[in-house]
Amino acid sequence: MLYNFTYLLAFLVCYSHADSMLSTCQVEDILFAVPQYQCPTNYTLFNRYNGAYCIQVFYNTTVNYTSALSQCISINATLSSIENYNEAYFILSQSQTLSRNVSGGVWIGGLRRSVCYGSDYLKNQACQPVKTFSFYWTDGFVEGTTGFGYWMDGQPDNSASVENCLALQSTAASWSTNSTSLLLDYECSRTRAMLGYACGQPATLVEDNGDDDDYDEEEDDV
């Protein structure tokens, strides 16, 4: 899918006359296009701080974190991070549509930082606050920590000190109410109650083919 956006800006330009104190002003338009980005088929494009990004959700009820990552890598992608709520809600809505409103988890590309393993991570200053700094995004294409702002109540809890992977909890209720309580830490080998996974990859910048029409300025006859 090709995404192309063209904008028209209007500027007020004033010219001073050498033989008087008066100025003449007129509105001049400048037409320009932002870069075009290409997503693979069935992916959806999102604008991120670091550039355009493509996400697709896959339905699979028997996949653990490692298998989900392998599936994404096999199609030249990786497990998707989340930069903002729009992306989180998109993954939620897609998983609910594909599963026909079944509740479950969706693997995304987040892992617990190694310094935050075990039962003592709450005492480690490097992991504080835990909702922001105990995990990191694995795709390396996200800016800021806003994506870590949608934890479910009591999460992350690192139950049994083995929940080192990140998932979105997808339910019909959270979809219909635009809930922001979506993230939870999961045991990476878990397959029970999983709905699938979200793959992501940077969008491809489409090079200008040089076929755009030129805008020539009209010159007055001398």
TrEMBL record:
Designated name of the protein: C-type lectin domain-containing protein
Signal peptide location: 1-20
Domain C-type lectin: 50-189
Keywords annotated in UniProt: Signal
Alphabetical list of PANTHER family matching this protein: C-TYPE LECTIN DOMAIN-CONTAINING PROTEIN-RELATED-RELATED
InterPro entries: C-type_lectin-like, C-type_lectin-like/link_sf, CTDL_fold
Signal in keyword set: yes
Tree of life domain: Eukaryota
Keyword Transferase recorded: no
